[in-house]
Amino acid sequence: MEDRLLRAAQHLDKEYFEQFNVSYPEMALKFNRAITRGGDPDSYRDEDLLETTLQMRREQNNEYTVQAEKLPTEVPYLSLDVANEQIEDLKMSLGGGPAFTKDSDKKTLDPLSKSIYKRLHKQTYMYQDLLNVDKQGWYDQFPQFTYKLNKQGDRNDFDFEDLTDNEFIPVFGDSNTVGMGLPVSELWHSKLKEELPIYNAGTICGSLMDVYMLLVSMYKTKKFKKTYICIPHSERFSAVSDKGMVEGLVNGRHWFLKQFVEADTFLNNNTRQMYRWVALQGIINFCLLNNIEVRLFDKNTFATVTWCTENELYVPNWMFLFKHMIKGVKLVNECSTDDVTQWPKHIARDHIHFGTLWHDKVAEYMLTTTEI
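Above: the chain's sequence. Below: its structure in token form.
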């Protein structure tokens, strides 16, 4: 197989090909340094960035991004999981609201976007009325924890180089696998009851394409016999920036870089699903070829919301649009509010990701689903 790959590379520009034929630590940094993975915006020049990103960089303390020169590190907050209002403004802009600026004019939005933005804003900030707390008060309802990032920028308290061939189990996925807004002990892969150490190779804004590249790179660096993969937003896409970082695109769009601002004009839904299918086949075939046992939770957002409804789970409030598409959808704001300790069961503290009950159910799914 390796000889065939090398022969195929002769027909490509070798320099471009070799950037993907690297060890896992180097590949992981290509992902974790990307802005969409929580990486440092200062890795790019001003002229590379959209105005919303420049505004964020001017007004937001650059303390919560993955900075390669500071790895390994331990930080209290990461990416969009930050206890201040500036990050909420950024989230709203990413969700279709006004650009990231204090002086944004909501009147510039078209009527449909204005309606969605108004409903999103109401859903997001409803905790203030329900719990009578501010943003910091909301964060105080959750267990205190930190993000420990190793030399690769992965969320582990040990480095990849500390592992031994066939004596660890890697888990792959998106930010739900990284564990945004939750302590490690509450994540689905912490509940698998495996005897071997679990290595968290999840990446923010992750997709099946990401999993394929990271899995193959990891196996070539250190062998493993078993893996778990959790992709609850599989319609995502990946693209390599001119800086060599593997950026994530959501619905065919990149919210930070000018380079990919028109990506959705050719990355329509059918095209994204085609690449998703190719990546999934690549993962399955690679695991079959190398006798790797794999358990997979692979659902797009719509299917994930449906699965949550079937399992009587609340979903994050930003999924309110699905209430009109899927019968029985329950938003976090509809959970019992008389006991604030119940909220972390249903939502992560960043208000974007799933809570601990979702992770319980995913672990159960992984343990009871037939191996691929």
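The CA atoms of residues 162 and 251 lie 37 Å apart.
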